[in-house]
Specification:
mainly alpha, 57% helix, 3 strands, single chain, DNA_brk_join_enz, 306 residues, Tyrosine_recombinase_XerC/XerD, hpI Integrase, Chain A, globular
Length: 306
């Protein structure tokens, strides 16, 4: 596509960044999606962003479905993401007078199947957390880290960026900076406090050496852990204790929400603890809990077995 379109894309991405409407991962995805759209327009002979209409959009969806460059069928969720990015892009262009019509405005994205979050049952979570060998420094750190992730429903990005000054041990609260730099306050229970203090006093101080940064969870060289590193530690421990499942860090967040709701927590409280902007995002966990109730009912009620 021409330089004018590329310039419009860069201004749009800068606008999203300044407005805190997307993480760095989201902005990278926007850039890829818009670049794909520009390649399509160029291939079809369009020279300006105001030229495409609703028919062009339908042709673009067909183009995405075929994925001519890979020969693979694209998922409905990926198409929905493309359309969302382009709808936002054209809304921006329309707002600043660069186009008069948003051809993506009233287009419905392909229906996405609801994904039920994967979570651990309480006994599985307890098995995972209680099976670290806390005679070893690395296991002391891992126990504290995973205990806190479950205690507070942390994303992996939140746990690896957690700073010492964000933890209030007196009131057992942690200040979390989540997506879009939104902050929330989450309490943690006594056991998480005990494990965290032991790690800080016995392990972190030893590993820090001459470094002076404030990141809580570090490796033996005093450097902050990475999200990939946390994933590896989780998988390695699961294999070591014979858990026959693939674990990923977000399962701890899902488990946090599901277990709270199972034990009577109010949905809006869980929304606040997770840092969700919309209640509808949190409601998926209600379906998880309801599903568990249904399966328990069917296995326990004598008439349901007939």
């Amino acid at each position: 596509m021409n330089a004018k379109a590329t310039d419009a894309m860069e201004r749009f991405l800068k606008h999203c960044y300044q407005a805190n409407t997307g993480s760095s991962h989201t902005l990278d995805a926007y850039r890829r999606d818009l670049s794909s759209y520009f390649r399509f327009l160029e291939k079809e002979g369009y020279h300006d962003l105001h030229e495409p209409d609703r028919n062009t959009v339908m042709e673009y969806i067909a183009y995405l479905r075929d994925r001519p460059e890979t020969g693979k069928e694209i998922k409905a969720t990926t198409i929905a993401r493309h359309l969302s990015a382009l709808r936002s892009f054209y809304r921006y262009l329309n707002e600043y007078g660069e186009v008069s019509v948003n051809p993506f405005l009233y287009l419905k994205a392909p229906k996405k199947a609801k994904r039920i979050p994967e979570f651990l049952f309480l006994d599985e979570m307890e098995l995972f957390l209680d099976s670290f060998d806390e005679q070893k420094d690395a296991d002391i750190r891992n126990r504290a880290m995973f205990e806190l992730m479950y205690a507070c429903g942390l994303r992996v990005s939140e746990v690896i960026s957690l700073r010492l000054d964000a933890i209030d041990f007196d009131h057992q609260l942690v200040r979390i900076t989540g997506k879009g730099d939104k902050q929330r306050i989450v309490p943690f229970y006594d056991l998480a406090k005990t494990k965290l203090l032991r790690y800080l006093h016995e392990v972190r101080v030893k590993w820090m050496g001459a470094d002076t940064h404030e990141i809580v969870f570090i490796n033996q060289r005093g450097k902050p852990l990475t999200s990939r590193g946390v994933q590896y530690l989780m998988d390695a421990h699961a294999r070591k204790i014979g858990m026959n499942m693939h674990l990923h860090p977000h399962m701890f967040r899902h488990s946090f929400a599901t277990h709270l709701l199972d034990n009577g927590a109010d949905l809006r409280v869980v929304q606040e603890l997770l840092g969700h902007s919309s209640l509808s995002t949190t409601q998926i966990y209600v379906h998880v809990s309801a599903g568990r109730l249904q399966s328990t009912y069917e296995s326990a009620h004598p008439r349901a077995k007939q």
